[in-house]
Write a structure and sequence with these properties.
Blueprint: H1 2-28, H2 36-69, E1 80-82, E2 88-91, E3 97-100, E4 113-123, E5 126-132, E6 146-152, E7 157-161, H3 164-173, H4 188-195, H5 203-234
Antiparallel strand pairs: 1-2, 2-3, 3-4, 4-5, 5-6, 6-7
Helix pairs in contact: 1-2, 2-5
């Protein structure tokens, strides 16, 4: 839905920009200019070409981001990002996340992975949080069998607990303070947001702006050229 929303917003913005450019073009160039209609058509077309360019830039950015850097583009409920310690944190929905250790590839509960995470806390070199044993359904009351976990990212050891008290005791033995309580979810996006930004994120704004500036400059130069012809013809 996010893609559709921003796509529609882009089309509306392009339509508004096209109308403004046509009005300015009519005001700037007299009706007697021979190529005035062609220029006004370019004014109306340019914002939509810009929208297509931005969309193409986003698609290329997203493809390279997933293929080369193994992470999503940040506009999906299915997100993932690698961490420096070899682990990957991601989500299967807005509410549930997962943690994959080195060598793990399937999003499921396993010896080197944790699934259906509802809360995630990072206290290097540990990752701890809460999870569900099975994915809750909306028609079922919000009473589920919540469990807890503590991951040592150096030894790749995962400890699982039935109660919060057991987690707090194990965390304290390792010098870690549990910073969350019995809240339903949270923390996952904080960890995700910490590791998601990379230098390649500049690709999309730079390429997009370059194309838009090129369109704007080409229109401006064409307008000045036609206006110059009008001034020359008046002498």
């Amino acid at each position: 839905m996010e893609y559709v929303f921003y796509g529609v917003i882009g089309l509306i913005a392009a339509g508004v920009a096209a109308g403004i450019l046509v009005v300015v073009g009519r005001w700037y160039l007299p009706a007697s200019v021979p190529n005035r209609k062609t220029f006004l058509f370019r004014c109306a077309r340019a914002p939509f070409l810009g929208w297509v360019w931005v969309l193409a830039s986003w698609i290329v950015y997203s493809y390279i981001l997933g293929l080369v850097f193994d992470r999503d583009n940040g506009m999906s409920t299915v997100r993932r990002v690698p961490m420096p310690n070899g682990y990957t944190v991601g989500s299967i929905s807005y509410a549930f996340g997962y943690l994959l250790g080195p060598g793990a590839s399937r999003v499921e509960e396993g010896p080197n992975s944790v699934a259906l995470i509802t809360y995630l806390q990072e206290s290097e070199p540990y990752l701890l949080g809460s999870r569900f044993l099975s994915e809750p359904r909306m028609q079922v009351p919000l009473i589920y069998d919540k469990k807890f976990f503590l991951v040592n990212t150096r030894s790749h050891n995962i400890l699982r607990f039935d109660t919060m008290d057991e987690l707090k005791l194990a965390a304290a033995e390792n010098g870690v303070t549990v910073e969350f309580g019995e809240q339903w979810c949270g923390g996952l996006w904080k960890v995700y947001s910490r590791y998601h930004p990379i230098w390649f994120d500049w690709f999309f704004p730079i390429v997009s702006l370059t194309g838009l500036v090129f369109l704007a400059v080409s229109l401006l130069l064409r307008a000045r050229h036609l206006h110059g012809e009008v001034l020359s013809a008046s002498y």
